[in-house]
Automatic annotation (TrEMBL):
Catalytic activity: S-ubiquitinyl-[E2 ubiquitin-conjugating enzyme]-L-cysteine + [acceptor protein]-L-lysine = [E2 ubiquitin-conjugating enzyme]-L-cysteine + N(6)-ubiquitinyl-[acceptor protein]-L-lysine
Protein name: U-box domain-containing protein
EC number: 2.3.2.27
Pathway field: Protein modification; protein ubiquitination
Species this chain originates from: Xanthoceras sorbifolium
Gene3D superfamilies attached to this UniProt entry: Leucine-rich Repeat Variant, Zinc/RING finger domain, C3HC4 (zinc finger)
Length: 414
């Protein structure tokens, strides 16, 4: 008999139990594969449940709901064996290709056929994984570690990534966990990092897409950042700046957030690779609120080091770009911007920086933020910045007299 699952555990699109729940900008949670198909295949720009217009296609893993679902499943169905995936209608073709592809002199052609089968749907993807396809194709990918100068080998590697980037690797499903284990091995990661640096535009998109999926897991990036060094960060920044392929740019942004959030050493390498300069120049043209917030988050991480703060204040657009986001994009962006300004004011308060904050409107916005009614850490930082540098700013006639009084800069007894 079919088990009755809690309503909140069901995807609003398929009404089936969610195994990889993700939340979109409207706050509604869906099964990842269903909402991705809704956006990419059906080209819809509305929320299926609320019918609200979608202004951002970013999706966020709902880890809390996933833990609740996993806990419920363990309690209610722990005695039932996991169902095996039935062979797809292309099972024979899959097995035939996988058994001969390793020795075939025409690997690229075979991989293209394999890719056309895998992209047919979830059934063929599951069949590919269950038939050992991941292990076979990854062996082709890592061949570039031994024959990196051979064009045919490199081309086969690129085509192999065209197969692998379509696979899900985030679910708690045993088959998908196995896919994660294979793709996250050092040889696989090194090969993909090489493709990101040297591959064609299409192959780089395949590799960075896989990296983005890994970024949503608990993968430890220490090995790859140490092994590939500054070149790895330069290639990520190059993808981030790609104005043609927005998918590659979005994936690179997600990967950078995960890498830099987990390691201060990685931040120093990113700064040396020119990350602060790239992020500042991308900030004014950020195409969405979400992208702006993520860029500010990265700049905040980089400004936690002296090298990052120096790079920001030395860039002619540094202070103006941050100032422009205050009270302009979102509350989250304003909070991030204030954190960056506080790091600069507190640790790098040169006379030029303090003057630029006044000239480019930062001080005016700091004063506006004092009108916030509720007490908050953001407002506390604003007050501290004003008290720290108000003596310098109060010398200018544009600094309001009433705020001089508020900050104790005038003698009322005179």
């Amino acid at each position: 008999m079919e088990m009755e699952y809690p309503v909140d555990f069901r995807c609003p699109i398929s009404m089936e139990m969610m195994r990889d729940p993700v939340t979109i900008c409207t706050g509604v949670t869906y099964e990842r594969k269903n909402i991705e198909k809704w956006f990419s295949t059906y080209k819809k720009n509305i929320c299926p449940a609320t019918m609200q217009p979608i202004h951002s296609f970013d999706i966020t893993p709902n880890h809390t709901l996933k833990r609740l679902i996993d806990s419920w499943l363990k309690e209610h169905v722990h005695h039932q064996p996991p169902p095996l995936t039935a062979p797809s209608i292309k099972h024979h073709d899959l097995v035939s290709l996988l058994s001969t592809i390793g020795s075939s002199p025409f690997k690229v052609t075979s991989l293209k056929k394999l890719r056309s089968i895998v992209e047919m749907g979830d059934d063929t993807k599951a069949d590919f994984i269950q038939s050992g396809g991941v292990e076979v194709v990854v062996q082709i990918v890592i061949q570039i570690l031994f024959e990196s100068s051979d064009f045919v080998t490199f081309r086969a590697c690129e085509e192999a990534l065209g197969v692998l980037h379509q696979l899900p690797i985030l679910s708690s499903d045993d088959q998908q966990e196995k896919t994660f284990e294979i793709l996250s091995k050092q040889e696989s990661m090194t090969s993909m990092a090489i493709v990101i640096q040297r591959g064609s535009a299409e192959a780089r998109l395949y590799a960075i897409t896989i990296f983005k999926k890994l970024a949503n897991t608990d993968y430890d990036w220490t090995f790859i950042t140490q092994d590939q060094g500054i070149g790895f960060f330069k290639s990520l920044l190059e993808l981030l700046s790609d104005e043609i392929c927005t998918n590659a740019s979005s994936c690179a942004l997600e990967v950078l957030i995960q890498v830099l959030s987990s390691s201060k050493k990685s931040r120093l390498k990113a700064i040396e690779a020119g990350a602060v300069c790239v992020l500042i120049e991308l900030l004014p043209d950020a195409s969405s609120r979400s992208k702006c917030e993520k860029i500010l988050h990265l700049l905040k991480l980089l400004c936690e080091s002296a090298e990052g703060r120096l790079a920001l204040v030395e860039h002619h657009m540094g202070i103006p770009a941050i100032s422009k986001t205050l009270l302009h994009v979102s509350n989250t962006a304003t909070k991030m911007g204030i954190k960056i300004m506080w790091l600069i004011c507190n640790f790098h308060p040169t006379e030029r920086v303090v003057e630029e904050m006044l000239v480019y409107g930062s001080v005016k916005k700091l004063l506006a933020l004092l009108h916030m009614d509720s007490r908050s850490s953001t407002k506390d930082r604003v007050v501290k910045m004003l008290k720290l540098h108000a003596n310098s700013w109060s010398k200018y006639p544009c600094f309001p007299f009433d705020w001089k009084e508020y900050l104790g800069l005038v003698d009322l007894s005179c």
